[in-house]
Amino acid sequence: MRLLVAEDDPKLLKSLLYLLESNRYLTDGVSNGNDALEYALSGEYDGLILDIMMLGLDGFEVCGLGYRLGD
């Protein structure tokens, strides 16, 4: 399973990626909502883990725009 993790706190992002990868998930990490949306629209991910309060787009906006633009 491939996951995208969007988190603007570098230490927390690194910890989340480590935790997921140690449990055999394939992961990519980004630090802002704009990058999260771009990566999410690639269609390469089985799931997204999104921070609610990020620079640029927040997690809710990424979900909403990704859903509308992914049609």
Distance between the termini: 22 Å
Mean pLDDT over the full residue set: 93
SSE order in H/E notation? Answer: EHEHEH
Number of helices: 3
Tell me the fraction of residues in β-strands, as a range. Answer: 15-25%
> What topology, given as strand order, has the largest sheet?
2-1-3
Structural class: alpha/beta
Percent in helix = 40-55%
Largest sheet, if any? 3 strands, parallel
Radius of gyration: 11 Å
What is the approximate shape? Answer: flat
Low-pLDDT regions: none
Structure summary, number of beta strands = 3
Structure, explained:
This protein has a three-stranded parallel β-sheet, with helices on both faces. Strand 1 (2-6), helix 1 (10-22) and strand 2 form a beta-alpha-beta unit. The protein has 71 residues and is an alpha/beta fold. The protein has helices spanning 10-22, 33-40, 59-69, and strands at 2-6, 26-30, 47-50. It is flat and about 35 Å long. Helix 2 runs parallel beside helix 3. It contains three helices and three strands; from the N terminus they run βαβαβα. 21% of the residues are buried.
Write the layout of secondary structure elements.
Blueprint: E1 2-6, H1 10-22, E2 26-30, H2 33-40, E3 47-50, H3 59-69
Parallel strand pairs: 1-2, 1-3
Helix pairs in contact: 2-3
